[in-house]
Design a protein that fits this description.
The chain is α+β, with helices and mostly antiparallel strands and about 375 residues long. The protein has 3 domains: about 5-120, no CATH class; about 155-250, Pleckstrin-homology domain (PH domain)/Phosphotyrosine-binding domain (PTB) (PH-domain like), CATH 2.30.29; about 260-365, no CATH class. The protein contains 13 helices and 13 strands. The strands form 4 sheets. A 4-stranded antiparallel sheet has the order 1-2-3-4, sandwiched between helices. A 4-stranded mixed sheet has the order 7-6-5-8, with helices on one face. About 20% of the residues are buried. Mean pLDDT is about 85; it is low at about 85-90.
Length: about 375
């Protein structure tokens, strides 16, 4: 029979992972350390820096107690289980167990020693305080920088991007901030270079024919003694970050950032349409009725060789040119199924007369 210590060990490992790396189910249920200790941490929106000074310290201490908590739980199970000593997970007080107990005890004691050094003089020696002190004006303290960041974080024009279950990137008017479990990295945009150094592509799902791309951005402050850090984002969130910050993001020449699925389809659709025979006209072309930004530049007319044998066959469209190629591509994509691999070979209906057409029936317009 399996020892109760084995069941407890498996349960403890799973529970620890769910607390350190909370899944969406735990977050929705409020089973995270931030929610449990919310009264002590305070409000992130009101006191952003103070909140994260407390949060990083709390995470460091509670996570350091995980090995010691396992000892207490395992000894409790051993004391009240019906299993014999020989059947237990580890022999009581063996050499390896003694080493583990000593190590598990020293880790939280070391963290407490750091706390005694950090917290005097209003957290002056805390790692977050020392990072902010680098940006303080002569004669000012890190509290002045913290106050500026707190004010900018309260504004509604900031962006917050959840890059992973435990890491978040925040961009305010003047700051780029990376929030992680034990640290808070900050950089002032005025003296910071952002370099998109690499990108990697991963399959979204084995059942979906699509990929997700992640980009790695190096944030390099030029401020003296300020350390660089890296942020990792989904490529779809890159545009939001670019729109918010004032500094340009330098993309290295060997890196190609892919857009969203729709953006990639628009590019492919335009390339395929440009290969079709052109449609010449002498009539005056008006603005595209979809976007009203560019002149209509495509015309639907049956050019494929498919015979009208059934109702899904392509038919002639007698509408005049009224759409641009991008709006037509968006309309075409919006009428397709969820499988992107079949989009180019699929069909759609004209937005106005509902005539069936395929991508071969979309002709570029040339005005004579």
């Amino acid at each position: 029979m399996t020892s109760p210590c084995v069941y407890f060990s498996l349960f403890y490992v799973v529970l620890t992972l769910c607390i350190i790396f909370p899944p969406p189910e735990f977050k929705s249920a409020g089973l995270t350390l931030e929610v449990i200790f919310q009264k002590w941490l305070g409000s992130e929106n009101e006191m952003f820096i103070q909140y994260h000074v407390k949060r990083t310290s709390m995470n460091l201490f509670l996570h350091s107690m995980v090995p010691f908590g396992y000892i207490l739980g395992l000894e409790y199970v051993r004391a009240y289980s019906y299993a014999d000593v020989e059947q237990q997970l580890l022999p009581t007080w063996s050499y390896s167990w003694k080493v583990y107990v000593v190590t598990a005890t020293l880790i939280p004691l070391t963290v407490c020693a750091f706390f005694f050094w950090w917290f005097p003089n209003l957290w002056k020696n805390h790692p977050v305080a020392r990072k902010l002190a680098l940006y303080a004006n002569p004669g000012a303290t890190w509290w002045a920088v913290a106050s500026d960041i707190n004010i900018e974080f309260r504004r509604i024009n900031k962006i917050s991007i959840q890059s992973s279950s435990v890491v978040r990137v925040v961009a305010t008017d003047n700051w780029v901030i990376k929030i992680s479990p034990y640290t808070l990295d900050v950089a002032h945009q005025s003296d910071t270079a952002l370099i998109l150094s690499s990108a990697d592509v991963h399959p979204w799902s084995p059942h979906i024919n699509d990929n997700v791309q992640f980009v790695n951005i190096e944030v390099k402050p030029t401020r003296q003694n300020a350390r660089p850090f890296k942020i990792r984002l989904n490529a779809l969130d890159l545009k939001d970050l670019q729109n918010r910050i004032t500094r340009p993001i330098t993309i290295l020449g060997n890196v190609r950032v892919q857009g969203s699925l729709t953006d990639r389809f628009l590019e492919t659709f335009s390339e395929e349409v440009s290969k079709n025979p052109v449609y010449s006209t002498t009539e005056e072309l008006e603005s595209c009725i979809g976007c009203m930004q560019v002149t209509a530049n495509v015309k639907l007319r049956k050019m494929c060789e498919e015979l009208p044998a059934h109702r899904d066959s392509c038919t002639n469209c007698y509408c005049r040119p009224m759409w641009c190629v991008d709006c037509m591509a968006r309309w075409f994509a919006s009428r397709q199924e969820k499988e992107p691999a079949t989009w180019l070979s699929s069909k759609c209906s004209c937005p106005l007369c509902r005539a069936r057409f395929c991508i071969l029936d979309v002709s570029p317009v040339v005005q004579e």
